Amino acid sequence: MSVGEATAAFNAAYPEAGGIASFLGKVRPGNDVRALELTHYEPLTKTGMGDLARSALERFTLDGILAWHRVGVMVPGESIVLVAAAARHRRDAFEAADFLMDHLKSAAWFWKRERRSDGWHWIQPRSSDHQDRERWK
Fold first, then answer.
1. Model pLDDT for residues 70-125, shown as the tens digit of each residue
2. CATH superfamily of 3-134
């Protein structure tokens, strides 16, 4: 399913929502990045994503959420992740989308590496990613 199809299906699924907040993450160009590869262990990823979704639904007043994450090799400009939250009120939708991304950036069940001109390099979450997640405790 494409990003556009996922977004359209999510929108159609929640016609009573007052709004939908979303974030689309893409492979950034620059810094000699030729490709980005994300790998995962599916049983762990599915369980973790499900737990994260339940946490968001318990924490915020939502009609629904969407967390869509690609794996495999992507090139600069391609979409990596889409999160969306449907809610009666905008604040819940925005905060839920932010909550989802803060957790996906620092505590996700994916391994990430970049291909540059000198080979492949593993990517670790930045300290700011961990700090962003900590604010939700």
1. 999 999 999 999 999 999 999 999 999 999 999 888 777 889 999 999 999 998 87
2. Molybdopterin biosynthesis MoaE subunit (3.90.1170.40)
Per-domain residue ranges of the chain: 3-134
Strand blocks (E) in the chain: 19-26, 35-40, 64-69, 72-74, 79-87, 110-116, 119-123
Would you say 57 and 121 are in contact if contact means Cβ atoms under 8 Å apart?
Answer: no
Confidence (pLDDT) at 88:
97
What is the Cα–Cα distance from 56 to 44, expressed in whole angstroms?
A: 18
